[in-house]
Design a protein that fits this description.
The chain is mainly alpha-helical. It contains five helices and two strands.
Length: about 90
């Protein structure tokens, strides 16, 4: 959903918000930011942060078995993609 705009109303009109965050969280966001527009950063920003965290995890797991396989499952990526990120 990177780059998306969410218009905060008293009732969550964005069904995708509820699917991603859960009803209770969206209700709290709407209560705080009612009348505002929330703009999400681009996907590249989210991807860069995920890759930074993944690299840190990968290198902190030295000597603990198949790091790439473990992180691939955790992040929903292929083993090859994980190795490309940390490589």
């Amino acid at each position: 959903m990177g780059g998306a705009r969410w218009y905060m109303t008293s009732l969550p009109v964005e069904r995708s918000m509820v699917l991603l965050l859960g009803k209770e969280c969206v209700q709290r966001l709407c209560a705080v930011y009612q009348g505002d527009v929330l703009e999400l950063p681009s996907k590249a920003v989210f991807r860069a942060e995920r890759d930074r965290v993944l690299r840190a995890e990968y290198f902190s797991m030295r000597g603990k078995g198949s790091r790439a396989d473990t992180l691939a499952v955790k992040y929903g990526l292929s083993r090859r993609r994980v190795l490309g990120i940390v490589g």
